[in-house]
Amino acid sequence: MALRVALAPGMALYFSPTKGNGRSPRVSMASTIPSSPKVESLKKPFSPPMEAHLQVTHSMPPQKIEIFKSLEDWAQNNILVLLKPVEKSWQPQDFLPDSSSEGFYDEVKELREQSREIPDDYYVCLVGDMITEEALPTYQTMLNTLDGVRDETGASLTSWAIWTRAWTAEENRHGDLLNKYLYLTGRVDMKQIEKTIQYLIGSGMDPRTENSPYLGFIYTSFQERATFISHGNTARLAKEHGDLKLAQICGIIAADEKRHETAYTKIVEKLFEIDPDDTMLAFADMMKKKITMPAHLMYDGRDDNLFEHFSAVAQRLGVYTAKDYADILDFLVRRWNVEKITGLSGEGNQAQDFVCTLASRIRRLEERAQGRAKQAPHIPFSWIYGRVVQL
């Protein structure tokens, strides 16, 4: 794909019995009872994509769970303080027309007029970002698979469980705000978008974190910075197109993502401090498997390569690129002082060398890919009523 290294370099392939459609095989049931023409055929059940790789679970040794139990007080004093009180938090309604106001229709009209100048390819990126945010139930589920930090009861009072719920609550505003804004513009096909969200949540995600908080928090550190960059770039482009309200919306979401990035990178920093060898091995493992984007199983019922196509548009517009991927890796290496960590095992030293040189290798590969790139095709997107956009 045009973005084979961009949003998710070396993204996992998907098994399919049909040519390249990325969907899982459908299971149908045959009956030995002769069918009657009046009997309605059984409807096929929802079937998400099937990952080609073997899923590894619970790879963290049980004794490591004690490390996270011992960090409860530390998390309370260093991570929970990064959450904002609800009463001091922004809410989607702060940025949207007030439906109870007599001036509601005038405000909507102004919003729609501003949105007219924004091109379709920008809306493809904005919709893709919104759909990613709307799949929030999947991300909370993923965090609650991590051994030693999951919310065991649904209302646990451990620091880790409180963080997961409160992080989810803060993130929930992002999809709400973008969804309502896009609905009011009239520029997008909301039913197709809603179908895509339903497909995505039903399909889930597999970041290959193996129920390990070592892998999981490295993944979220990378992802929060990626979403900070993506929303920040959509804010910049909205401003360039003259939509200051949309720029404000994307900017305020980016600020949240930056704060969440701070929390997750602090956790990994602490892990490097108390368990440098296993943390280094986890960092290398996560980067060898590639950081797949949360919405990599995106599907709208029509385009079997929807995520690939959305990613290509994001790459072309500069919303999120292969360069950003490499820059994030460089940032994390610096943030955690990875090059200066000593006392590692032989395997740990090899992992250290790998992560410290990987970004430059990614950049070289991307330069070669760009040099071989052909004229990008034009693809219709159901999100914008089938209008065609260049990849």
Automatic annotation (TrEMBL):
PROSITE patterns from the UniProt entry: FATTY_ACID_DESATUR_2
UniProt remark on cofactor binding: Binds 2 iron ions per subunit. Binds 2 Fe(2+) ions per subunit.
Cofactor: Fe cation; Fe(2+)
A Gene Ontology molecular function term of the record: metal ion binding
Keywords: Chloroplast, Fatty acid biosynthesis, Fatty acid metabolism, Iron, Lipid biosynthesis, Lipid metabolism, Metal-binding, Oxidoreductase, Plastid, Transit peptide
GO CC term (a single one): chloroplast stroma
Binding site for Fe cation 1: E133, E171, H174, E257
Known EC number: 1.14.19.-
GO annotation, biological process: fatty acid biosynthetic process
Pfam families with a match to the protein in the record: FA_desaturase_2
Compartments (UniProt record): Plastid, Chloroplast
Main localization, broad class: plastid
Record region (Disordered): 20-45
Annotated family: Belongs to the fatty acid desaturase type 2 family.
Database matches in PANTHER family: ACYL- ACYL-CARRIER-PROTEIN DESATURASE-RELATED, STEAROYL-[ACYL-CARRIER-PROTEIN] 9-DESATURASE 7, CHLOROPLASTIC
Function comment: Introduction of a cis double bond between carbons of the acyl chain.
Name of the featured protein: Acyl-[acyl-carrier-protein] desaturase
Primary gene name: LOC103706520
